[in-house]
Write a structure and sequence with these properties.
Elements: H1 2-18, E1 25-28, H2 49-66, E2 70-73, H3 75-82, H4 84-87, H5 90-96, H6 102-117, E3 126-129, H7 140-143, H8 156-171, E4 175-181, H9 184-193, E5 206-210, H10 214-225, E6 232-235, H11 239-248, E7 253-254, H12 264-269, H13 281-300, H14 306-312, E8 315-322, H15 329-338, E9 342-343, H16 351-359, E10 363-371, E11 374-385, E12 396-403, H17 412-427, E13 433-437, E14 456-460, E15 465-469, E16 481-485
């Protein structure tokens, strides 16, 4: 079949490139031609051109999932964003052998730039929203539940569509939060009881609804979610509030929203701040993880002793070795690219770099966490490498040690370290292990990790501190959770 031949040829090309280079590859998929050979009849044919394009694109998608560091550039989507009628230019095609119109070229350039940026840029984690004239039209404190604009007719329909878009962002793993100057009871009444509200209180990871300063509210949101301020974006229709947050929190990206709710979706979408090249199951569950964490935080208030609270959670830590074919491999790459606060070396290994380290004898351990409130998913990764890339009685080195901010403060890192040490000494008995701390502006929460876990400092420079775990010492394992091997 022709379509299988097309995908097979592309796969051979990728294999050829991979023999000489591990560089990222962006593979274009296909768009329908400007003119279909069968015209209107194409849609009714058993083997139509449109069906051919759809099946080839499905094959290309599968090829990119199978191939490491290979991504789709969605040419098909780009063509439809411009419109096929305006995408191709016969005059340019004949005169310059350039089939695309100037408008299409500009759009292609923008979309390529966004894709390339994603190789280095991490998406923002949280969207903080105002309420009045943002999630609905009007002021609920003055207009009441029945008086605000939210429903089937414009402008209420534009706010409904904006909320629907926000719900889709949440399903992609973007955290939603509220920073609103309002009466909390009035605001929650809309979110809970208005028949046209798409978003409900449980869809928000953090609620700051009061009459205090919004910059303070955003700081509280960052602290409660345990994320950095530069991971946060702010969306508010009021220009005075936007300017205030810009002046007080320069790390926070503040959207210039405009005044028309019809344009709200495009303001966010065109920014590219929430773009990502891959979506993992953990992404789709992230917002629920933070919602559950909020329940944990509320529950902790009834305990005087933090360790009693941690024991009450009935935490289970599931652990497994990482290999290059593991279904967890992509999630680990995502953690490598995103984790900052509890990341001792902040090495942003690519897929090929991580694969080489594992194939050279490195030991990678992942941990996933669940408790009586729910699952956190995969939240930690540690990688130890042998000297000279092979097993030896010489010192091993912990190349990477990181933990998601979602589980900081629960001593999960102690279990991860013990699991890694046990794995290393299971392969190279009685070996000493070197740990490194490379300071960054964000990872100070992890700076004392090694000395608190039986490691002794052996040297220090301006760029790193090195510690040694003697072969006779074993890190303590707290009695706060159960371990489960996968």
């Amino acid at each position: 079949m022709v379509r299988e031949h097309v995908v097979e040829r592309l796969e051979n090309l990728i294999d050829g490139i991979r023999k000489n280079s591990s560089a990222p590859i962006f593979l274009w998929n296909m768009a329908e031609p400007a003119r279909l050979a069968a015209g209107f009849a194409d849609a009714s044919l058993e083997f139509s051109e449109q069906q051919f394009v759809a099946e080839v694109n499905q094959g290309i998608s599968g090829l990119c999932r199978r191939s490491q560091n290979t991504w789709i550039f969605d040419f098909h989507r780009t063509a439809y964003e411009v419109g096929l009628k305006h995408f191709y230019d016969l005059r340019l095609s004949y005169l310059a052998r350039m089939p695309f119109s100037q408008r299409a070229q500009a759009h292609l350039a923008r979309n390529h730039a966004r894709c390339f940026a994603l190789l280095k840029m991490r998406p923002k984690k949280c969207l903080v929203l105002d309420l009045d004239n943002t999630l609905w039209g009007g002021v609920v404190g003055e207009d009441g539940l029945s008086g605000i604009e939210l429903g089937e007719d414009y402008p209420g329909s534009a706010y409904v569509d904006f909320q629907r878009y926000l719900a889709r962002l949440r399903n992609r793993g973007i955290l939603l939060a509220i920073a609103s100057k309002n009466n909390e009871k009035d605001a929650l009444d809309v979110l809970t009881n208005h028949p046209s509200s798409i978003l409900r209180p449980e869809d928000f990871s953090e609620l700051q609804i009061h009459w205090k300063d919004k910059a303070l509210s955003i700081r509280n949101i960052a602290a409660n979610l345990n994320i950095a301020l530069d991971s946060i974006t702010f969306f508010d229709d009021n220009p005075a509030e936007r300017e205030w947050v810009k002046s007080q929190l320069p790390e926070v990206h503040v959207f210039d929203t405009g005044t028309n709710p019809i344009g709200y979706v495009d303001v966010i979408e065109s920014s590219g701040l929430f773009d990502t090249l891959v979506l993992t199951p953990e992404d789709t569950e992230r917002a629920d993880h933070y919602r559950i964490e909020r329940q944990r935080r509320i529950s902790s208030r009834s305990f005087e002793n933090p360790e009693d609270f941690l024991r009450s959670l009935d935490t289970i830590i599931s652990h497994e070795l990482l290999d290059t074919e593991s279904p967890q491999f992509r999630r680990v790459l995502q953690l490598l690219g995103r984790s900052n606060q509890f990341n001792l070396t902040t090495r942003r290994h690519t897929a090929d770099e991580l694969r080489r380290l594992l194939e050279a004898g490195g030991i990678g351990v992942t941990v996933s966490v669940s408790d009586r409130f729910g699952s956190h998913g995969l939240v930690g990764f540690a990688l130890a490498v042998p000297p000279s890339g092979h097993d030896s009685k010489e010192d091993w080195r912990i190349d990477t040690f990181l933990l998601s901010c979602r589980v900081m403060g629960r001593r999960i890192e102690s279990a991860l370290l013990r699991l890694l040490v046990d794995r290393v000494r299971g392969r190279a008995r009685d070996v000493a292990i070197i740990g490194e701390y490379i300071p960054t502006p964000k990872n100070s929460p992890s700076r004392n990790f090694y000395p608190e876990h039986a490691f002794e400092k052996i040297d220090e420079s301006a760029t790193q501190v090195r510690y040694l775990l003697d072969s006779s010492r074993i890190p303590e394992l707290p009695d706060l959770y159960s371990l489960k091997a996968e």
